[in-house]
Amino acid sequence: MQLLLLNVMLAVLPSLILLWYFYRWDRARREPRGLLLLTFFLGFIAVLPAALIEGLVDPFGSGYSPLFRLAFRAFIVAGLVEEGIKLFVIQRFVMNRPAFDEMMDGIIYTITASLGFAFFENLFYSFGSPGTLIIRGITAVPLHAIASGIMGFYIGLSRFGSPDAWKRGLLYAVLIHGFYDFFLFVGGYLSYLVFPLLVWAARELGKYHRQAQLADQRSGRV
Predict the structure, then answer these.
(1) Cα(35)–Cα(42) distance, rounded to whole angstroms?
(2) Which end of the chain has fewer CB within 10 Å, C or N?
(3) Entry pTM
(4) Whole-number Å distance between alpha carbons of 181 and 148
(5) How many domains would you assign to the chain?
(6) Local structure of 110: helix, strand or coil
(7) H or E element: which one contains 216?
(8) pLDDT tens by residue, 76-96
(9) Residue 124: exposed, middle, or buried by beta-carbon count in 10 A (0-12, 13-18, 19+)?
(10) Residue 125 pLDDT grade (very low, low, confident, very high; cuts 50, 70, 90)
């Protein structure tokens, strides 16, 4: 029982810590906590349809070479399905609300949904070893936030000026998510590439954060 409680805590903490961190990014005009909570919850339950779709899509990658199979699972089954579900959550339930009134909001709300998603995913590992949850806490959970945060910038851009920009954001999120999973699926020394990938992607997200702030300031939205 004590081990299970420890594992649940390790599953919960990374998402909550990152949620608090990214919430502080939008200091100019804080988002309504109720809507953020709803977005987190929607990301949480989005794991269920994502898992169903992944189960339906996964067999299409069979019958090919092992390397193609791994790439298909990484970029399509995991990357496209999971990032696509997060995109759907934001576009369907959040994007057209009055509170979504800055480009920065695209980043904040998409990251919030992604952390709800990552939280649910981590719960599946609560019955394993604490070490697995610690590794996921410093790799998989930030991966969800960073890849989706970059997509969120383009969602914000599509809300304020370029309607089709979300497509580019989805592509970037799928590539980052896909390469992360592909490196881990192949394993061996290649798996260590997830760390420079995360560092690079985090730096890119930081650049998008600054661009969104500047765009909101210049437009008078803040």
Answers:
(1) 10
(2) N
(3) 0.94
(4) 15
(5) 1
(6) helix
(7) helix 194-219
(8) 999 999 999 999 999 999 999
(9) exposed
(10) confident
pLDDT band at 1 (very low <50, low <70, confident <90, very high): low
Residue 4 · residue 127 · CB < 8 Å: yes
- Helix (H/G/I), strand (E/B), else coil: 125: coil
End-to-end alpha carbon distance in the chain: 49
Q: Identify the pLDDT of residue 5.
A: 75
* Dihedral sign from CA coordinates of 15, 203, 184, 149: positive
How far is residue 215's CA from residue 114's CA, in Å, rounded to a whole number? Answer: 24
Residue 35 has pLDDT above 80, yes or no: yes
**How many other C-beta atoms are found inside a 10 Å radius of the C-beta of residue 44?**
19
Could you tell me how many helices (H) and strands (E) the chain has, helices first? 10, 0
Distance between CA atoms of residues 137 and 20, nearest Å: 15
CA distance 201 to 206: 9
What percent of the chain shows pLDDT beyond 70? Answer: 96
Q: Which residues form the domain of 175?
A: 2-219
| CA–CA gap between residue 112 and residue 95 (Å, rounded) | 13
Calculate helix-pair angle for 103-123, 81-93, nearest 10 degrees: 130
